[in-house]
Fold this sequence. Notes:
CATH topology of the largest domain: Rossmann fold
CATH architecture of the largest domain: 3-Layer(aba) Sandwich
Radius of gyration: 19 Å
CATH superfamily of the largest domain: Class I glutamine amidotransferase (GATase) domain
Structural class: alpha/beta
Shape: globular
Amino acid sequence: MPVRIPDNLPAAHALELENIFVMSETRAENQDIRPMKVLILNLMPNKIETETQLLRLLGNTPLQVDVDLLRIHERESKHTSADHMNTFYCNFEEVKHNNYDGLIITGAPLGNVEFEDVTFWDHFREIVDWSQQHVTSVLYLCWAAHAGLHYLYGLDRHILPQKRSGVFVHQRASKHYPLLRGFDDEFYAPHSRVAEMNVAHIEAHPELNVLAKSEVAGAYMVLSKSNRNLFVMGHPEYQKFTLDDEYRRDANLGIDPNVPENYYRNDDPEQSPISRWYSHGSLLISNWLNYYVYQLTPYDLSDMSAITPWELETESE
């Protein structure tokens, strides 16, 4: 089924070239269907690239999805035109009285900044607080996952001596969650971050479950026991050359970055990257949208009380 996006959003053309079914607002108005309503809080500098990555995954599910794009503040973006932001993004004041089936909060290049020193930290906390009453399920990616775990559950992160960049093998920590349905015992996922959270501290928290982790990259998927909050420490949305772009950007800035691990053929940055995480990245988003949004959300979004109690039956394999 299609993902419904605003007319003329640049991502539409890229997705259509990949045969991903996108539907304009104008066409969708003629259909009599209850689509999933998903809000994306985009904190990444290159808004258009991140929009396209996330819409690519949302468009690869059997559900029709309406997408709204949210900005964290009204300050001018350094990497995205004001015209694009004003045309396609809404402010929180415009949506705070709405209810949504799902909310995705992206990562942000703020790994070395203390959470309380982030310029939009108060706005971030306000949106997270709002989401706990107005959204069926919230998906936090990378920096947002660390920030959400810190704010909601009081967990701290530590700064790594070197940036964690590369594609790492992960193991399922449990087999009994719908989110992991169809996952292999081991699978790959990309990471790009300078901070990490202690897996043992997460596992010891009474309100959290670690669903997947890596011996090298630490926790990858963490789910609240309420099923409302899903924290993904990596970047399942990344495309083949995203890590390459970041590596060469940092090299050009004189940062002398480490070569992303398990990414280039023969670990040689002069050779082509190998994409080996697409299938599980797509499966992750599909399972989240199906089992933790569609299966739990009320038909009438005005009645969010209908989504309680927050329970999904686990399954054995």
